[in-house]
Amino acid sequence: MFARTPVLLVIAVAVTSAAPVAAQAVAGQPPAPVAAQAAPFEQTFPSGAEVLSVDGESLGRLAEVEMRAGGERILHIRRADGSMTTAPAIVASRGERAVVLDWTRAEFESGAMTAAGPPTGLPPSPTPPLL
Q: For a surface tag, which of 40, 107, 115, 118 has the fewest beta carbons within 10 Å of its beta carbon?
C-alpha cells in the first residue's frame, strides 16, 4: 500500500491544480493568458555605420533611416564620393561591425532598389475572370 502512495500524491496534485482552469472554462470565462505576446523583432540600424555588400565590400556609410507610410524603412547611404543612394531595409541586416546588404556591389551600383519589388523574369500572375 505504501508503494503506491507517491503515485497517488502525484495524481492528487495534478487534479487539484487543474481544477481552477476547469472551473473557469465551465463558468464561461476565458482562461488567463499564459504570457504576453512579444513584439516582432525589428532591427535597428545606427547612423554612421559602415554599409557592406553581401561580399564584404564597403558601399558607404549609413546616413539615416527613413520611415515611410505603411511602415517601409529606407536606408539612406552616403557613398565614398559623397553622393547619396537608398536601399530598402528589408535587404539589410545588422552585422557585428556594419550594416550588410543582401546585394553585391554590382546590384547596389545598378540601383537595385527595384529588386525589393516583385521578382522579375516570372510570368505575370493570371487575372481572375470577371463574374
A: 40
What is the distance between the alpha carbons of residues 80 and 89, in angstroms, rounded to a whole number? Answer: 20
Taking only Cα atoms into account, the Rg of the chain, rounded to an integer number of angstroms, comes to: 28
Q: How many CB atoms lie within 10 A of CB 89?
A: 20
pLDDT in tens, 45-77: 999 999 999 999 999 999 999 999 888 999 999
CA separation, residue 93 to residues 58, 84, 115, 127 (Å): 15, 19, 16, 35
- The DSSP call for residue 68 is P
pTM over cut 0.90? no
- What are 126's three cell numbers? 493570371
Per-domain residue ranges for the chain?
50-110
- Residue whose C-alpha cell reads 528589408 in the numeric block: 90
Residue 109, phi-psi category: left (phi > 0), alpha (psi -120 to 50), beta (remainder):
alpha
